[in-house]
Design goal:
This protein has 277 residues and is mainly alpha-helical. The chain has one domain: ABC transporter involved in vitamin B12 uptake, BtuC. 81% of the residues lie in helices and 0% in strands. α3 packs parallel to α6, α4 runs parallel beside α6 and α7 packs across α11. The chain is globular and about 60 Å long.
Length: 277
């Protein structure tokens, strides 16, 4: 048990573990809708488009979450507006905004004296550097996301599985679509410190994709996905502590390993199981 307890003597490890669990759960729960609705590219693009907001906040000495949240919400709403009329396909609009905003962020960051270090921090996260303020921000925003998902669960379920039924029931589809986009933006802000911009997509997609191989029921999928996300976060912190590897990539690699094991050996549906049968 010493290997498990020894890291807990350091407050920064405890803060990192708490942040990793929160991010693992929030990303994984919302990630089920991202996977079901085929929004992985949107999540990846949105993660990159918040970079200008992060850089502006960094250069002005503001909390990074403030700049990220502002640009994340603006980007989500902007992409929604660009694609609402149907003049542009959603993937085209996302690609244009993604490339432009990310380039703007890198250009702005290049004006900083510590360009290389800061860019690495933004791109790959710094889980072991989570402060009390970061932890509170993560917890509050994460709670808002989970509560919103709980309140609109049935509506999100209908628009994800049966858009025609959603129209028949006269659900506010446009509002729900924008709400989901904004929730993704807020979740990205929650995850920024843990896995960074470049690895954000993995926390959305990998635990949820793993859970989808184990169950078809959405509530169960959310629970399994959240469990995988939380475990990956905790295991990633310990891997970072003992193996001296970057914390964000460690979290993602563990989640990816779990996905591969499930893909190969899931009872009744795994690749290897299929070959044996």
């Amino acid at each position: 048990m010493d290997w498990f307890l020894d890291p807990l003597q350091y407050s920064f490890i405890i803060q990192a573990l708490l942040a990793a669990v929160i991010v693992g759960v929030v990303c994984s729960v919302l990630g089920t809708f991202v996977v079901l609705r085929g929004m992985a590219f949107f999540g990846d693009a949105l993660a990159h488009t918040i970079l200008p907001g992060v850089v502006i906040a960094f250069l002005l000495g503001w909390p990074l979450a403030v700049g990220a949240l502002i640009f994340g919400v603006l980007t989500a709403v902007g992409i929604g507006v660009l694609t609402e009329r149907g003049d542009l396909k959603e993937d085209t609009a996302i690609g244009v905004v993604f490339a432009g905003f990310f380039a703007l962020g890198v250009a702005m960051l290049s004006m900083s004296d510590s360009y290389t270090v800061d860019l690495a921090h933004f791109l790959f996260g710094n889980l072991l550097g989570v402060t009390q303020a970061d932890l509170w921000t993560t917890a509050v925003l994460g709670a808002i996301v989970l509560i919103t998902i709980f309140l609109f669960y049935k509506e999100f379920l209908v628009i994800s599985f049966d858009p025609v039924l959603a129209v028949t029931l006269r659900l506010p589809i446009t509002f729900l679509r924008y709400l989901l986009l904004i929730l993704i933006a807020v979740t990205i802000v929650v995850s920024l410190q843990v896995v960074g911009i470049a690895l954000m997509l993995a926390m959305f997609v990998t635990p949820a994709a793993t859970a989808s191989l184990l169950t078809r029921r959405l509530p169960t999928m959310m629970v399994v996905s959240a469990s995988i996300g939380a475990f990956s976060g905790v295991a990633g912190v310990y891997a970072s502590y003992y193996l001296n590897v970057a914390s964000g990539p460690a979290v993602v690699l563990i989640a990816t390993t779990i996905f591969l094991l499930v893909f190969l050996f899931a009872p009744g549906r795994g690749y290897v199981w299929g070959k044996l049968v």
